[in-house]
Specification:
Layout lengths: L8 H7 L19 E5 L5 E4 L3 E2 L7 E2 L7 E6 L6 E6 L5 E7 L8 E5 L4 E5 L14
Antiparallel strand pairs: 1-2, 1-9, 3-4, 4-8, 5-6, 6-7, 7-8
């Protein structure tokens, strides 16, 4: 059974323990290159650069995910009711999704921690997705 990519302590805190990075601190907040954002832990493709937009929230924002890449879960932590998003392959924490804000025509904002992703520039072969057998 293959192991997922190794994570440093900060990456582990966000991806495995549902932490967050500070607003406006992530490497992809203002990133504008063409390509694909993949899961840092398992290399699964998550988002296309065509779906990224500047929301002003301080984290990378996308108005759509690659079909089947993201799972949604109810999150009632911190005294709020939100929708957490995780990688459908490895279940690593990505961030939260918000609907009804009217920031784009799709009316959806995936607010994603940069540290939960890696970027693969257009025209570059992405690393193979790491799939582990269910336990």
């Amino acid at each position: 059974m293959p192991d997922y990519n190794p994570l440093n302590p900060f990456e582990s805190d966000v991806i495995l323990r549902k932490g967050t990075e500070r607003a406006f601190a992530g490497e992809f907040t203002d990133h504008e290159a063409d390509g694909t954002y993949i899961c840092r832990q398992c290399n699964a493709p998550l988002y296309r650069s065509d779906d990224k937009f500047h929301s002003g929230c301080g984290w990378p924002s996308f108005d759509d995910e690659i079909q089947g890449a993201v799972e949604r879960h109810r999150d009632v932590s911190h005294g709020m009711v939100r929708v957490e998003i995780v990688c459908a392959n490895c279940k690593g924490h990505l961030g939260h999704v918000f609907e009804g804000e009217r920031m784009t025509t799709k009316n959806t904002r995936h607010c994603v921690n940069s540290v939960s992703m890696r970027f693969v520039p257009a025209g570059t072969q992405p690393p193979a997705k790491i799939v582990r057998a269910p336990r």
